[in-house]
Design brief:
The protein has twelve helices and twelve strands. The protein has about 325 residues and is of the alpha/beta class. The protein has two domains: about 140 residues, D-Maltodextrin-Binding Protein, domain 2 (3-Layer(aba) Sandwich), CATH 3.40.190.10; about 120 residues, D-Maltodextrin-Binding Protein, domain 2, CATH 3.40.190.10. Helix 2 links the parallel strand 1 and strand 2. It is elongated. InterPro entries: PhnD. Keywords: Signal.
């Protein structure tokens, strides 16, 4: 027993030091909160942007319980570079901009997306053909002409071509020609007048189909009052795509990211002025998102689809 007591007296200070060190390390984990949060907002030429965005900045301060510094960006490309280089911590991105940041650094994650209305906050790239023309499926359209947007168009070119390929349809091999049109509605006109057999566009696929749904290429055509709307139908659609990506750097503490997501989810109800300050065109409120929700757009930056999206083809 004397030997045991002696060993305990000898080990006790060492064990105490070990436990104290472990506790200190835990307290100084990566979960240590930053001194402040750096918010980037793309404003283009909006001279009153700082005042317009102020309610959102103030609400974010309350949610994060941190000072929030506002950085105004001229373009989405500026926000992409600032997030990737660590100059800002948070930005509201387009789906394509989110995919671009991920391609650069894999250092961001999305928290929420905004909805345009009370329907789910998602839209789709779609392929549209003439109804009842014996080309109601992709197989029927083999060897036909497809209208596409410019090579930088997200829903008129990049997303549909990449996701058609993911479904096993190489657009450059499947169609006899890809015919560029000035905009998606012009593509519908080209289908109706026989210049092409199908065209690309986008749709919310929410609401009444007879009205062209709540938003998108078919809805634009329906609202225009032009003839031929009832002669069009959707033949293919991409997986759903969130409208926006309120994104943060991954190296922020998880506790802070959870706090931000929860606060943003409540913002439309708790602080509608702050919500509309950052999402004036999508007033339906925030919904939670994860990285995989942006897969249809992420594909457009992957090597597997680079040759397909190259306008020179193979």
């Amino acid at each position: 027993m004397a030997l045991v007591n002696h060993l305990f007296r000898w080990l006790a200070p060492i064990l105490a030091a070990v436990f104290l060190s472990a506790a200190t390390a835990s307290a100084q984990d990566p979960e240590t909160m930053p001194d402040r949060l750096r918010l980037g907002v793309v404003v283009a030429a909006d001279e009153g942007a700082r005042d317009r965005v102020e309610p959102f900045r103030l609400a974010l301060e309350e949610i994060a319980d941190l000072p929030v510094d506002l950085f105004l960006m001229d373009t989405m490309a500026d926000a992409v570079e600032a997030l990737a280089s660590g100059k800002i911590d948070y930005a509201r991105l387009s789906p394509s901009a989110y995919a671009a940041v991920h391609q650069l650094c894999s250092c961001v994650e999305p928290l929420v997306t905004a909805a345009p209305d009370d329907f789910p906050a998602r839209f789709y790239a779609v392929l549209i053909a003439k109804r009842g023309a014996e080309q109601g499926t992709l197989a029927d359209l083999k060897g036909k002409r497809l209208a596409v947007g410019g090579t930088d168009s997200v829903t008129g070119y990049r997303v549909p071509l990449a996701n058609l390929a993911a479904d096993g349809v190489d657009a450059r091999a499947h169609f006899s020609a890809l015919v560029e049109v000035k905009d998606p509605v012009e593509g519908l006109r080209a289908v109706l007048d026989g210049r092409v057999d199908a065209t690309l566009g986008w749709s919310s696929l929410a609401g009444e189909a007879k009205n062209g749904y709540t938003a998108g290429t078919l809805n634009d055509f329906y609202v225009s009052g032009e003839r031929g709307f009832k002669d069009l139908e959707i033949v293919w659609r991409s997986p759903p795509i969130p409208y926006s990506a309120h994104s943060v750097r991954k190296d922020l503490p998880d506790a802070l990211k959870r706090r931000l997501r929860a606060g943003l989810m409540d913002m439309r109800r708790e602080a509608p002025d702050a919500y509309l300050a950052i999402e004036p065109d999508l007033p339906g409120g925030f919904e939670p998102v994860v990285h995989a929700d942006y897969r249809p757009v992420l594909r457009t930056y992957e090597d597997d689809y680079a040759t397909l999206l190259d306008p020179a083809g193979r």
